[in-house]
Design brief:
Elements (H helix, E strand, L loop, with lengths): L2 E6 L6 H13 L2 E7 L10 H12 L5 E6 L3 H8 L3 E6 L2 H17 L5 E6 L9 H9 L10 H11 L3
Parallel strand pairs: 1-2, 1-4, 2-3, 4-5
The chain binds adenosine-5'-diphosphate.
């Protein structure tokens, strides 16, 4: 059984994330999407909201589940006995940050936890949660970037539309 986790803030999940999730689900027997609760990071949506949005978005992919975690990622890996972490790469700008996290996780887990990078599908290369939030904040159209219920939740939070 090859299990992988896909951790992130998912504030909120976008079509870019969902594309990575779908592709990872074809490579591994099980994929758990883990909503990381980083106290120092201000988020628009609560952990519960982010988990619910993800659960809705992946409900049709049988081997994908959603979980939440609020301390070190490698503690989660240890607890669940997972050794593969998936991350997405959009552009060179992601690379340095992602490489550093991957190497830290590798070192902190005594070499046990490896990171697998999936490169973005070109149509989603420009999509990020922060950009989606910015557009929704000003009432712009985010229907091509996130699922419908999430677009609605974004407009509600921002009192736009
Ligand atoms: P974090 O706050 O941990 O960076 P995010 O929710 O922003 O979490 O992203 C989770 C992962 O998904 C990261 O590896 C990020 O690079 C990747 N990702 C985000 N948007 C896209 C996209 N459009 N295409 C591919 N990967 C993406």
């Amino acid at each position: 059984m090859k299990t992988a986790i896909y951790p992130g803030s998912f504030d909120p999940v976008t079509f870019g994330h969902l594309d990575i999730i779908r592709r990872a689900a074809r490579m591994f027997h099980r994929v758990t999407v883990v909503v990381m609760n980083n106290a120092s990071k201000h988020t628009l949506f609560s952990v519960d909201e982010r988990v619910k949005m993800l659960q809705n978005a992946v409900s049709e992919i049988k081997n994908v589940s959603v979980d939440a975690h609020d301390s070190l990622l490698i503690d989660y890996c240890k607890e669940k006995r997972v050794r593969i972490v998936i991350r997405g790469l959009r552009a060179v700008t992601d690379f340095e940050y992602e490489l550093q996290i991957a190497q830290t996780n590798k070192a902190l887990s005594q070499g046990k936890v490896d990171t697998v990078f999936l490169t973005t599908s070109l149509r989603y290369a420009y999509v990020s949660s922060s950009m989606v939030k910015e557009v929704a904040h000003f009432g712009g159209d985010v229907s091509k970037l996130v699922p419908e219920d999430i677009a609605h939740a974004l407009y509600l939070k921002n009192n736009t539309r």
